[in-house]
């Protein structure tokens, strides 16, 4: 069986970080580093040139930061499955970076102290089009919206949720809890393909780019809250 190689672009202003990640990722049989960028502007340019599957994006970089670079990359996407996904890497777990990166269109957020195995798995998850948040960052996401009963934009956002069917609303809530399609299928006792269809419909109806934005939306509207399943 032929294995598809995931092509990665590394964007970080520290040479040692880029070299270290390159060694770790190139050691994986299904991942290859297609290129590097030393700042946000070069990351945008190299993404357009190389069309990588995943961009590993540092947050703090000269000329153009990782969050704005992420926004420019995601805004340039065509909406197809082959569009580059952005996985944000940082040494900081401050919530402001988490939310800004996710709202900019990032598909995942991982701390730089993750192990080699965690980094490779994160690249694979994001390349599949799924959302990824480190566990401690998911906790920050929950806590951020816990004190917002109606969420920002309350009534307007809730009107959009009303357009979803009961099953689509269930699926959205489970996506926000970080479950994969397979896990959601097990939770709802349906086929995984059925879940994929529901997720696609949710994204279309809500006008969202991906699962990560769907998760943020669910917290913003109060659909998902701490301790409520």
In short:
The chain is α/β, with parallel strands linked by helices and 229 residues long. It is built from eleven helices and six strands. The protein has helices spanning 15-26, 40-50, 66-75, 95-103, 116-127, 135-146, 154-161, 166-176, 181-188, 192-206, 211-220, and strands at residues 6-11, 31-37, 54-58, 85-90, 108-111, 132-133.
The outline comes out as globular
- The succession of helices and strands, N to C, reads EHEHEHEHEHEHHHHHH
Distance between the termini: 39 Å
State the share of residues found in helices, binned by percent: 40-55%
Q: Report the biggest beta sheet as strand number plus sense, adding barrel if it closes.
A: 6 strands, parallel
Report the sheet-strand fraction: 5-15%
* Number of discrete helical segments: 11
Q: List how many beta strands DSSP finds.
A: 6
Q: What structural class do you assign from the helix and strand content?
A: alpha/beta
Order of strands in the sheet with most strands:
2-1-3-4-5-6
Q: Gyration radius, to the nearest Å?
A: 17 Å
Average pLDDT, rounded to a whole number, is: 82
Q: Spans with pLDDT under 50 lasting ≥5 residues? A: 149-153
Q: What does this 3D model show about the protein?
A:
The chain has 229 residues and is α/β, with parallel strands linked by helices. The chain has helices at 15-26, 40-50, 66-75, 95-103, 116-127, 135-146, 154-161, 166-176, 181-188, 192-206, 211-220; strands spanning 6-11, 31-37, 54-58, 85-90, 108-111, 132-133. Strands 2-1-3-4-5-6 form a six-stranded parallel sheet, with helices on both faces. Helix 8 packs across helix 11. The chain is globular, with a radius of gyration of 17 Å. The protein starts with 5 loop residues before the first strand and ends in a 9-residue tail after the last helix. 38% of the residues are buried. Mean pLDDT is 82; it is low at 149-153.
């Amino acid at each position: 069986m032929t294995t598809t190689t995931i092509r990665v672009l590394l964007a970080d202003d520290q040479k040692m970080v880029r070299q270290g990640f390159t060694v770790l990722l190139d050691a994986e049989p299904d991942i290859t580093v297609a290129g590097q960028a030393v700042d946000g502007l070069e990351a945008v340019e190299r993404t357009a040139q190389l069309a990588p599957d995943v961009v590993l994006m540092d947050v703090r970089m000269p000329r153009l930061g990782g969050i704005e670079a992420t926004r420019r990359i995601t805004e340039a996407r065509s909406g197809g499955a082959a569009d580059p996904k952005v996985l944000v890497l940082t040494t900081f777990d401050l919530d402001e970076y988490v939310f800004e990166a996710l709202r900019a269109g990032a598909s995942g957020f991982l701390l730089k102290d993750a192990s080699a195995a965690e980094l490779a798995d994160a690249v694979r998850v994001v390349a599949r089009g799924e959302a990824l948040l480190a566990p401690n960052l998911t906790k920050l996401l929950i806590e951020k919206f816990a004190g917002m009963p109606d969420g920002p934009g309350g009534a307007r956002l809730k009107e959009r949720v009303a357009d979803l069917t009961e099953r689509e609303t269930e699926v959205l809530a489970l996506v926000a809890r970080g479950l994969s399609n397979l896990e959601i299928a097990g939770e709802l006792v349906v086929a995984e393909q059925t879940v994929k269809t529901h997720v696609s419909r949710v994204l279309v109806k809500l006008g969202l780019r991906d699962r990560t934005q769907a998760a943020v939306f669910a917290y913003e509207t109060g659909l998902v809250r701490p301790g409520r399943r």
